[in-house]
Design a protein that fits this description.
Layout (H helix, E strand, L loop, with lengths): L8 H6 L16 H21 L5 E2 L5 E2 L10 E3 L6 E3 L7 E7 L4 H16 L5 E8 L3 H10 L6 E4 L3 H6 L3 E2 L1 E5 L5 E6 L4 H12 L8
Parallel strand pairs: 1-8, 5-6, 6-7
Antiparallel strand pairs: 2-10, 3-4, 5-9, 9-10
């Protein structure tokens, strides 16, 4: 005589409810996916720290393009070397490379030779460079520029007010403004000669104006 099978016994035996949808397999944990997650977390944490008045985080990675609103940007301050006033308006008509750095930032030090090389190479092509030294002491910052022979001036901005204005969240960060003062590129992390030259050439090919 066959015994009665209790309702649900078959489903329990097979480990599944026929009325439920099977669970999808987990997404593969690839190195590219992990890197993307780390970058997103870095930017979120950095943004939170800037909003809370904390310091900028250090982005010890090769420079990556960050999505930006191609808006006109203006800023001003006092030069590190002699405290003279300086304004981005003085660079209108030129492509302007703006690099945020600090003497204690290892990736800033690592990228400085590339920035200096490109600044010298593009000096006669209506491309100007300005550094913005943040969260630093004047003495340490001046020593850095002398040691690494930085060939362009920097603003001294210990309170990182310019970083907040341009929405920089990490060190180093490099902005490239077109000849009208519009932000064309924002690079987060250590830039290199090829990375920087590629973006400058793309901009100069359109007369130094951001074309989208």
């Amino acid at each position: 005589m066959m015994s009665e099978i209790e309702p649900g016994a078959v489903e329990a035996a097979h480990g599944a409810d026929p009325g439920s949808d099977p669970e999808p397999p987990p997404a593969p944990d690839t190195p590219r996916r992990r890197r993307l997650v780390l970058v997103v977390l870095l930017l979120l944490v950095a943004a939170a720290r800037v909003r809370d008045g904390g310091g900028l985080v250090v982005a010890d990675q090769q420079a990556i393009d960050r999505a930006v609103t191609h808006r006109q940007a203006s800023f001003q301050g006092r030069l590190l070397g002699d405290e003279r006033p300086w304004s981005s308006a003085s660079a209108r008509g030129k492509v302007l490379v703006v690099n945020f750095w600090a003497s204690w930032c290892g990736p800033c030090r690592a990228e400085q030779p590339a920035l200096a090389a490109v600044a010298r190479a593009y000096r006669d092509r209506r491309v100007a460079f300005i550094g913005v030294n943040v969260q630093d002491t004047r003495a340490a910052a001046v020593a850095y520029t002398r040691e690494l022979r930085v060939p362009y001036p920097s603003l001294f901005d210990p309170g990182a007010q310019t970083a907040t204005r341009l929405r920089a969240v990490a060190l180093p960060t490099t902005f490239i403004l077109d000849r009208g003062g519009v932000i064309a590129y924002q690079l987060t992390g250590k830039t290199t000669v090829p990375i920087l030259e590629a973006r400058l050439e793309a901009l100069l090919a359109h007369g130094g104006r951001w074309s989208g």
